[in-house]
Amino acid sequence: MPRITVLPGDGIGPEVAGEAVRVLNAVGERFGFEPTLTYALVGGAALDEFDTPLPEPTFEACKAADAVLLGAIGGPRWDHETGDRRCEAALLGLRKRLGVFANLRPVLVPAGLSGQSPVRADRVDGTDILIVRELTGGIYFGAPRKLSAATASNTMVYHASEIRRIARVAFAWAEKRRGRVTSVDKANVLEVSQLWRRVVTQVHREEFAHLALDHLYVDNAAMQLVLRPGRFDVILTGNLFGDILSDLAATLPGSLGLLPSASLGGQIGLFEPVHGSAPDIAGLGIANPAGIMLSAAMMLDALDLSDAAHAVRSGVLAALGLGVRTRDLGGTASTGDFANAVISHIRASALAAA
Ligand code: NAD
Ligand code: IPM
Ligand code: MN
User: Fold this and answer.
1) Dihedral sign, CA of 276, 282, 283, 289?
2) What DSSP element (H or E) covers 332?
3) Which of 46, 107, 156, 269 is the most exposed place for a label (fewest CB within 10 A)?
4) How far is the CA of 124 from the centre of ligand 1 (A)?
5) What atom of ligand 1 comes closest to residue 16's alpha carbon?
6) Closest ligand to Cα 81
7) What is the pLDDT of residues 264-294, one digit of tens each?
């Protein structure tokens, strides 16, 4: 039985995580497993209760699990905090301590949804991109970092070994997909990017020369994502650029609420939607839970429960296809309505298979 630690977090985090858990239980029933769920606090919820956004018992609960499913952290109530007391620092600490350096962010435009995109349907139709974002290095973690009244600084550092291991992840995925990696950097300005480009080119030449590799500067990559999303297969990039490009890529299917992610590379995977705690809609029951449900599907895949993963994905696609859509996608469905539609599909497909 898979042991899953659920970190609902803040804002819409608990709303979407609750519905994802209902879906996990439904799919468990369908495929004969019962997830053992442990809940723990992280982010603002943990700060309120334990005076730290990543309490040790929370981290211990993550270490004791087979996988971690996270809602979202942060919000205006805690934005005055600095340093390690920031909610965001807890998430970074969790990623670092779990060693999950490879963040996979698939961007697909489900059939029938291209009309939701602000980008013309004929450009977004058929989009199928995998963003491979380095997650435990770069400017997010580089030292020194400092904030004073007069100056502030951060440091962007990448070691060749960090670039090499994330490049291998990207090429390995490209091998299973359409065989093309686009590495995104800012090598025209940053030394860090010059090393990035050198190492990626070397890994390609020495280990993956049968695949296609090209390089784009991040400013151009942002423009190409909107102009010609179909040109991309796997995008390989660093922590900061990957963060920004993935939110931008969410405009292709039409909502940030749709994008899932898997953070891998350590013993325990961390599965989290790409979106944040959405303070503007928190508490209204209208958040789109598709992103966390698809993250749960990535988690089931990682746990070797691929039939269950497939059932969750097809449930989400079926619900969207039936027009059960939350407000971000122009619909009127609540978070719970969407989950009900996914669960009905999972149960109906069980009956059909019986
Ligand atoms: P956000 O992703 O929370 O929201 C951006 C916009 O997208 C908002 O208009 C929001 O309503 C909408 N949105 C996001 N998820 C949605 C969903 N599931 N359904 C419908 N609409 C959705 O980004 P933000 O407003 O810049 O940040 C809010 C807080 O979240 C900040 O504290 C930030 O640090 C945090 N954050 C956390 C994570 C995480 O936990 N992984 C990720 C990003 C941001
Ligand atoms: C994300 C988020 C996080 C990040 C924040 C909340 C630390 O934006 O997962 O995309 O920047 O990595
Ligand atoms: Mn982000």
Assistant:
1) negative
2) none
3) 156
4) 23
5) 18
6) 1
7) 999 999 999 999 999 999 999 999 999 999 9
Catalytic residue numbers, as ranges: 140, 186, 219, 243, 247
Answer yes or no: is the C-beta of 288 below 6 A from any ligand 1 atom: yes
The Cα angle at residue 167 between residues 267 and 68, in degrees rounded to 5? 25
Q: Tell me what pLDDT residue 111 has.
A: 81
The amino acid occupying position 50 is F
Is the pLDDT at 354 greater than 80? The verdict is: no
H/E run at residue 187: none
Q: Indicate if the pLDDT at residue 173 is higher than 80.
A: yes
* Mean pLDDT of the region 46-55: 98
Assess whether pLDDT exceeds 90 at residue 350. no
The string of DSSP letters for 27-63 reads HHHHHT---EEEE---THHHHHHHSSSS-HHHHHHHH
Beta strands in 89-196 (DSSP E): 102-108, 128-134, 146-147, 152-153, 180-185
Cα of 190 from ligand 1 centre, angstroms: 29
Q: Which atom of ligand 2 is nearest to the CA of 92?
A: 7
pTM recorded for the entire structure: 0.98
Q: Among 281, 300, 282, 284, which Cα is nearest to 23's?
A: 300
Report the C-alpha gap between 271 and 277 in whole angstroms. 15
